[in-house]
Amino acid sequence: MPSIWLSIQTGKHHGIRRHAEVGLAEVGRRARERGADTFVVADSHWMNSMSFHINGKARHQGSYASHELPHFIADLEYDYPGCQELAQLIGEEINAGGQKSMVHDVKDLGLEYATLVPMHFMNRDGNPLAVVPVGCNIYSSIDENRRVGEAIARAVLRSDRKVAFLASGSLSHQFPPNEISSQYLDKISNPINEQADRLVLDQWRTGRIAEFLSALPAYNERFTGEAAMADTAMLFGILGWDGYSGHGEQLCDYFPSSGTGQVIVDFPIPDGLKA
Fold first, then answer.
1. pLDDT per position as a tens digit, 80-93
2. 272 in a domain, yes or no?
3. Which of 113, 140, 161, 204 has its CA at 20 to 30 Å from residue 170's CA atom?
4. 131: which strand partners?
5. How many structural domains compose the chain?
6. Could you tell me the residue range of the domain that residue 147 belongs to?
7. How far apart are CA 68 and CA 105, in angstroms?
């Protein structure tokens, strides 16, 4: 979320998301420790209205300002390698699974902040890992995105890459009314949203994944899931859906940001999936 970027700027909000900064850096450290050479990112701010899209550029380079919140994020310079081969494989596997996807190598197709902000903390090494962004279709179903996740896993297994997958979106995602939005930088929009989010976190931490997934469509609808919670469904599609036997490790405290629910959680890949 953009307040993490705000947190590292000088001024009155400096340091407000320090625990999230540390959590994201830890994700990057773990990815390298486990041998990853590529981040595949389901970016909830690269929102698609038709098909599924993959950014297949060989290099991602530019300077970014948020069109949504330019007072939060501006002049964010970035330079990351891409992975055209993996992007093509992901597109092929999504299509092979009966869905429509397109892989793009377009000069002016830049990155969005759901990729850029985490990568700033996770991928700052002098030799950055490759980045392959996947868009989130805002009109897709949970089941469609599960199948996209399965396709990503198949593509990785066909490739020679070692991949860390980042589901970059929120938990509940209800914004407050515009007239009072400035009062909610550190507040949840509705107490029931936080209660639902904390239940989800308990399910993840204790490995009650099937229980969570059975309620995911309703959770997405009732608590205003970001980008149809496409990133979340892709994540669990990669992990094996309700057959996933692991559990999530929470890397920072749950916190609200502009009314939405935020957290960082690590889900280890099961032994049977060498992605």
1. 999 999 999 999 99
2. no
3. 161
4. 39
5. 1
6. 2-266
7. 24
